[in-house]
Amino acid sequence: MWGAAVIRDSLAAPVNVTIKALKSNSAVVTWDIPEGDLVIGFAITQQKKDVRMLRFIQEVNTTTHSCTLWDLEEETDYIVHVQSISMSGPMSQHSEPLRFRTPKESETQASKSKDEVTMEEVGAQLRAGEFIIIVVVLIMWAGVIALFCRQYDIIKDNEPNTNKDKAKTSSECSTPEHPTGGLLRSKV
């Protein structure tokens, strides 16, 4: 073969499946794939231990090799499997089952480092930032409206009053080019 890639009949299952950032209601599953596999996505199967119902998640991002599991229950045992998806359609075998247990909420809070930021804190920071942006935009609009009103008053002051124009005589409307009043010439 002239530098052609080795094509296997089937994909190998993902390896080194681990849990990171384990919390009472979420966890991050990470994995590696064997070198040379042409993978277009992953399928993650999450199951509570001793429960038949499965949660099936498909990930199409092939660069991160991780997936966050949300809505987990505290103090609950889970089993996770990961499969690779090939371009031709078939999936690999399941990875080795990974068993983990979510901690209590109180254990998660106690183990939180002082540098770690929660989603609630991020949300509060975002709301404060959004509020500042809204205030700045409103102040800018008030400035624009004030400038418009000022310019409108200047234009209005420079505009000849139509009621006074009717009372003016033709000599008041004269110009240097037409000293006798406009385009009409007086008969002398």
From TrEMBL:
Q: Disordered: where is this region? A: 88-118, 159-188
Q: Which Pfam families match?
A: fn3
**What range(s) does the Fibronectin type-III domain occupy?**
13-105
List, alphabetically, the CDD domains matched.
FN3
Keyword Ligase among record annotations = no
Q: What is the protein's membrane topology class?
A: Single-pass membrane protein
Write the record's keywords in alphabetical order, separated by commas.
Answer: Glycoprotein, Membrane, Secreted, Transmembrane, Transmembrane helix
Organism domain of life = Eukaryota
What residue intervals traverse the membrane?
A: 131-149
**GO CC field:** extracellular region; plasma membrane
- Enumerate the InterPro entries for this protein: FN3_dom, FN3_sf, FNDC_type_III_4/5, Ig-like_fold
Composition skew (Basic and acidic residues), residue ranges:
96-117, 159-169
Q: Where in the cell is it found?
A: Membrane; Secreted
* Name this polypeptide is given: Fibronectin type-III domain-containing protein
Q: Which organism is it from?
A: Oncorhynchus tshawytscha (Chinook salmon)
